Amino acid sequence: TFEISMSLKPGNIKAATEQVLSMLDEIKKEGVDPDRIKHAKVQMKVGRFRDMQTTDDISTAMVEDYISTGDPHFREKYVERIQNVTNHQIKEAARKYFDRGKLITTALMPAEDPAVATFPTTAALLRPEAPSTDEPADDKPSDRHATRTVLPNGTVLLVKRIASSPMVSIQM
Asked: Which residues contact 91 (CB under 8 A, 6 or more apart)?
């Protein structure tokens, strides 16, 4: 997965989102300018060096790497592997992972902003090509509240149907 974060005024969200998606489409077709790739590789090395100034920095990084990957030297190897990435590999990764159909967009907007009142819904603003469905008017009370079930092994199962979001969330 990957993430793109932006801090924008609410009125600029749609245009900025389209611009970013257009840039990602361009990367899928043309890749990235070789000078930008070279610069990014240097930035990775510099960032790694900057994060390893003290023995505390080094030990913390090694512990975090070991806990998250099982390899205390993961970051060193990661930065080294980045140095070997090619433009062709970037295009292939972009084609594989930059899929508009799998886009999840989240927006936090201030309620007091006058532009927010003009938006029909945040989902309609951000995802017009895949709009959410509305809750049915004749929903049953059991659909509005979570149901609690205790399984034979003692696990508590909470289930609540939310028709406007076609996804399943499991938290353990």
From this structure: 27, 28, 29, 30, 31
